[in-house]
Amino acid sequence: MDCIIQFCYTTCMDTITDVKTSEQRLTKKGKETRARIVAAAAKLMFDRGVAGTSVEDVQREAKVSASQLYHYFKEKRDLVLAVIVYQTEQVLDAQEPLLSRLDSMEGLRMWRDAIVKLQIERHFQGGCSIGSLASALADTDPAARSELVAGFMQWELAIRKGLRAMYDRGELRADADPNHLALALLTALQGGLLLTQVRKETSPLEAVLDAMLAHIHTFIV
């Protein structure tokens, strides 16, 4: 199973690498303009959804001309793919350095608290910025779905790395499966974020994360 997951992750990451390689060919000013367009598109798509965001909306928000926008993105689909990469980076960066410390129950609880705090600061709006894109695109755009798979896999692998470290140190029972636990924790998180968005309060998110951490704790030696 590890080999299959790693193969899928590597395949999806190749697309992200291609995007970043294209960025590297730009001048400093070109990179800044492209980054401003992507950030503007990400903000609008998070607030309004993909379907509710037009290329013209992005142009106005980024304060660029139509020719500038189309120089970097030939069509909206290309811009959406760039937004997925951008939002993945934003989500993972927002959780650092906590994501690199998920190798203890204390670290997992600190990460849990930070996730809850972020939703409160956002006033429970938007849910998961990657998850919201997945809801809009996974069934209709195969290329977007591949990018989303890569984004979620980066998140899952970060969680799995911490649990694997606990397992390798002998802190988790031999029958614990770090891969399964990491996937379950990320899946639970996504459901909790969705219900928190709908209910406008964090009790669903807290409940599901607490339940998952309690489950992981049952494997502690």
TrEMBL record:
| One Pfam family from the record | TetR_C_13
Which ranges does the entry annotate as DNA-binding region? 54-73
Domain HTH tetR-type residues, every copy: 31-91
Which InterPro entries does the record cross-reference, listed alphabetically?
Answer: Homeodomain-like_sf, HTH_TetR, Tet_transcr_reg_TetR-rel_C_sf, TetR_C
Keywords (A to Z) from UniProt: DNA-binding, Transcription, Transcription regulation
Q: Which domain of life is it from?
A: Bacteria
Q: PANTHER family under this entry?
A: HTH-TYPE TRANSCRIPTIONAL REGULATOR LMRA, TRANSCRIPTIONAL REGULATORY PROTEIN
Question: What protein name does the entry list?
Answer: TetR/AcrR family transcriptional regulator
Q: Which organism is it from?
A: Paenibacillus lignilyticus
Its organism's taxonomic lineage begins at: Bacteria, Bacillati, Bacillota, Bacilli, Bacillales
